[in-house]
What does this fold into?
Amino acid sequence: MDASQLRLYCESDAVKSLRVLMVASEAQPFSKTGGLADVVAALAQALGRLGHDVTLVTPRYGRLESGERRGSVQGRVANRMLHADLFEAPIGDHARAILVDCPPLYDRPGVYAEDHVDYADNPVRFAFLAMAALEWAAAQAQPFSVLHAHDWQAGLVPVYTQQRTPTVFTIHNLAFQGVFDKEWVSALGLRWEDYTVAGFEFWDRLSFLKAGVMFSDALTTVSPTYAREIQRPEFGYGFDGIMRHRAGALAGILNGIDDEAWDPARDAYLPAPFDAVDLTGKRHAKHAVLELYGLKTDDVAMARPVVAMVSRMTEQKGLDLIDALAPHLPSLDATFIVAGTGEPRFESMWRSLAAANPGQFGVFVGYDERRAHLVEAGADVFLMPSRYEPCGLNQMYSMRYGTVPVVRAVGGLADTVRPFNPKNGQGTGFLFSEYEPTALWDALQRTLTAYRSQPKTWRRLQRNGMNQDFSWERSAKEYLKVYRRAMAR
It folds into this structure.
C-alpha cells in the first residue's frame, strides 16, 4: 500500500474504531474555569457514542474525591521527584477520565492562579501532567491510535512522547500561550537543540503553546473563522506568522454543545420544560430568574425584556465596551442580569450599576451551574460582544433556549449566529462588526426594538435559533477526519 492509498484508507470508514488519548488541564465534571472543560468532556463523550475508545487525562484538583485507583506514576521535574496516584472515573460510553492525583501540584484553591496571580510553578504542574499521561499510556497493553492535546497546558505532550503515535493539538484560545523563562528548558527535561525558531523558542522564551503547534502532526482550532483570524496580526497575538507557517496542518472545527445537558425540554434546573413548539415554560423560567435575582416579577417586569450575560468579566468578552456604555444602560427599558467573575474593575462596574439601579440590574459575582441554566432559559436576550471569540458556547446555549444573542461578528460567533433580517424574519440573532461602544449600542437598540414592536417575528427568531443543530456528533466526526489524516502521515 503506497502513501496515497494509506491516506485514503485511514480517512475512510474502514478504520472503524480508534483509541484516543486526550490530555487537558480541566474537564467537566471534575474541574472548570471556562469553556475548555465543557469542550473536552463533551468531545470525549461524543467520540465514545460513535464507538471509539477515549481516555481523558486531567489533574485531580483540590479535595475532589472521584474514581477508583488505577496505579501510580512518578517523574522528576525541576529537580523534584513527583509521585501521583491515578484514579479512573467513567464519563460516558467507551469514555473515561484518568485523574492525576498529585497534591503538591494540584491541591490548591485555584486551577491556574490564586487572587488573579498565576502559580509560579505552572510549568512544573503541566509538564508533569504531560509526563503522567504518557507514562500511563505507555503502560497500557493496547496502544493508542492518536494523542490529542488541548491548549498550552498540554503543549509538551507531542514533545515528550517517545512513541510513534500521531499527535493532534487543539488551540482553544491563542491569547494564552504558556510563555516562561528559558531557564525552564533544562528543568523540564527539554532539549536545547529544540529551543529554536523552528521549535519551542518564542522571543527568547519557552512557549508551551508553540511546542504543541510545532511538534504536532495536525492542528485544530475551535471554529473555521477563528482558524483564518489567527493567521492575521490583529488576532494572532504574535503567533500569526507561526500559524501561517503551519496553515497546511490547521483545521477549524466548530465546537458543539452538550445537547442533552443543555436541552430546555428536559433540563432539571428549570421550573418547567419547553421547546420550539411550545414556549410556555420559558415564561416560567423568566419569572424564576427574576425572583432568583431579587427583582420584581409583576406583569410590567415580565413584559420588559431581560438582557443577560454569563461570562468571564474580561476585555476579551467585551466588558470594556459595556463599561463605556454603563452610564447609558439604565436608560434602556430593559432588565439586566449578570453572572460571572473576572477583573475586579468589571466586577465593580456591575456591582455599582446594581447598587444605583436595584430594580433594573441583578448581579451575581461567581458561578454555579443551576444559575447559568436558569439565566439562559429565563432571559430574552443574551449579550456577547467579544473582542475576539475562538468559538463561544453561550451563544449556542442561548439559541437552544430561545434566547436571542447579540454578538460581535468574530470567530465562532460569526460562524454560529446568522444576522436577523427584519423583512423576512430570517436569522438567529443580532450582530455588529466594529469594536466600538456605538456599534454595540446600535445592536442593542435594534434588538430591543424588534422585541417590542415585532412579537410574531421575535417568536420566529427564537424558533430559528432553537432549530439549529449544534450537536457534538457533527463536530466529533470532523475530529475523526483530522485523526485519520494524522495517522496517514
Remarks:
- The two ends are 13 Å apart (CA to CA).
